[in-house]
Every structure is written in C-alpha cells, then in structure tokens.
Amino acid sequence: MRIVQFAASFAFVFAFAAQSARAEIALLSPENGARFQTLTDAQLKVFEGGTRQARFDILKALGDEVSHKEWRRQRPLILKWRSTGRDKYPWRVRLATKPDFSDARDFWVAKEDLRRKKSRDGAESVWKYTVPLANLELGKTYYWQVWSCVKCPTFSCGFTYPEKCKCGKSRCGTVSEVFSFTTEAAPPRWIAVEGRVKNIRDIGGWKAQDGAKVRTGLVFRGQGLNDDSLVEIGYGRNRLMVEDVAFMTKTLGIKTDLDLRHDREVAGMEMSPLGPSVRFVRRSSPEYGGIFDSRGGKTMAENFRVFCDRANYPVYIHCISGADRTGTLVYVLNGLLGVAKADLERDWESTFYPEFPGFENPSYWRSLAPLDKGFAKFGADGDSLQRRIELYLLSIGITPQEIETVKNIMLEK
To answer: Same structural domain for residues 175 and 195?
Structure first.
C-alpha cells in the first residue's frame, strides 16, 4: 500500500514539475526594439497636409473614421503575449523607463481587462491588454514585462508574483523576459486623465530655431481643472479624480497652474484644484487680437514672466476649454522659440479637430487673422514671425534678458 501511495505521489510531483517546466510567458508585441508611433493614423494623415486647405480636405475625407474622443489622445498601447502551462491571470504587467524597473508602473490585470485567444488544444493562450492612460513620452525608451500569478491553495496568502506565498505551499509564478520599445518623437504628446479634463497636451516636441526643438515636460496646456462658476459665487465643480491630481503633480510634476479665466468664471478662486503645493496664478487674459491693446499687452507681459522663472516649471496653462485664450499664449510662446508658422497652425487646429466648427468656411480662420495682422505691425519686410513676436514682447516691456531666459529654459539642441 505504501509503495502504491509513494508511486502516486511521485507521479503527481513529476507531472507538476513537468507542467511547471513547460510554463512560459512569451512577449509578442510591441516587438523587442520596436518603434512605437504615439500619434494615430488619422492624426498622421492630417498633419501630413502641407497647407491648411489640404489638412481640411484630409479631415473631411476621413469622415467618421475618427471621433472627437479618439483624436484627443495617443494611439493605444496594446501589449500582447503568449502563455503556456498553468500561467494565467490576474497578471502583473510592468512598464518602466529604466531597465531595472525601479520606476515601474504596475498594472494588476484581471480577466475582464483582457482579450484572450486559446489554441485548439488549450495548451496555450494569447493575451491582449490595452494599457490605460499610458501617456507615453516622446522619443523615450520603455521596458515591459509580464508576471503570472499562482493562488495559494490554502487561500490564506493570496496571489504570488512570482515569490512563494508565506505558507510555502504555492509554487512561484512565471516571469517573462524583458522587451523594450522606443516612442517616435513626433508631436504633439496627448495626455489623458480619468476625470473630465480634456484637450491636454505637451506644447514641446516641435522643431524650433537653429536645429533646436522645444523641450517636452515643461509646459502643458488643456481645459480648465474645474467648471466655471455659474452664479459667480463659490468654486465650480472639480473635474479631476484623486488619481489625476497625483498624476499631474507627481508624474508630470506640475508646479504652477496658470489660469487665464475671467473673474466671473472663477468666483474668487485662490487655490488650484491640484492642491496647495501648486502655485496658482490667475489673470483675466485676452485672446487673439486682444493681446495688442494696452490691457492685453500688460496681461501678456505678466503671463510671459511666469516662464522667466525656472522655479515655476512645469507649468499647466488653461482657460476653460483650452482653446482660444490658451491657444493664443501658446502661439506666442512657441512662435518666440522659432516654431514654424505651419506647425503653430497645426497645433492650434489640433484643439478643434475633428469637429472643426465650419471647417469648410475659410472665414472661421478670422480667429488667427488678428494675430497675423497684429504681428505684421512689428519689424520690417522679410522679418520672420519669430522676430516679429520678439519685437512685440519688447514693446510691452519684456526685456531681452527675459526673452533669452525663456529660450534657454525651453529650447534644447
């Protein structure tokens, strides 16, 4: 009897060991060393248009292929891997910018978050996982890895990833090899959050003067972080989730909230929705042609000086929709840095695509026309837009030293 029991136990252990030996997690895509384009196919097609009208024509041809929600975000990061043996969900997916995973973001992936395809014999499965709010940086190398879990048979130690449970009765989970991919550097970098704040993007990444480019990670633009006050008393409803505040203050590192809304929109707000650790600067700011009158020039100078102090970075700029007042200030900033006019227009247009109001009617572009007309008054024939913006800033009291300070901070070779 003892011999039979021993043989049965040995067979069980041998089968378990053989099954464990066969267990494997094989990463599939993005392939190791791959290039990953953060812009969607629709965004790339539209940006390829060399003229304003060409971009409108491309947008019109796309039709229903792209929604407003899909336009204002990055291409989804979809991770794909194959598993064999006993390895299964919930998976621990790790995404990092350091090869030792010391800065890893861990995603605990349950069955409902996955798409699974089994082989006919059931011996292996292919899994697909869309990373939520990946918010990938431009021109950055990322490393990823997948761990399987094993549940403790005593139900006392939970899941192990891949360490053994405390009671020692569960085998280790399996760890995949490490794959890497590098994101393309093409702007804009769209950013998504859980809450109701949309149209967020990094203003950096664009080619600028003398072979330089605008640094990323320094200035972000988007919608208001809370609703407007409806009755001019009390603050508008916060649009952020708790995790959004942590992401914006820790991951993006926002130190200054530059709010361009009018007095009646904010009802006396004195603190940023991001919390007391973020400097809150709020000025009733003009848009488009409004920056050329005396009040608009004074406000522009005050807003511009926010960017003259390194301690204020990173800065989040917004009005309520992140379109007109925000777009005007960003146009001036990136224009001063030497971003080409065509790229300034692409960035401005991105706020409105794909539901660009009246895009078949050229008169809509009266929004940018006052900027062109206003800057044309500065400089001489043949002067670049960059030079004209620089002369405009000098005319409202900005010093050459302040202009150089902003360039030194925001430009990189």
So the answer is: no
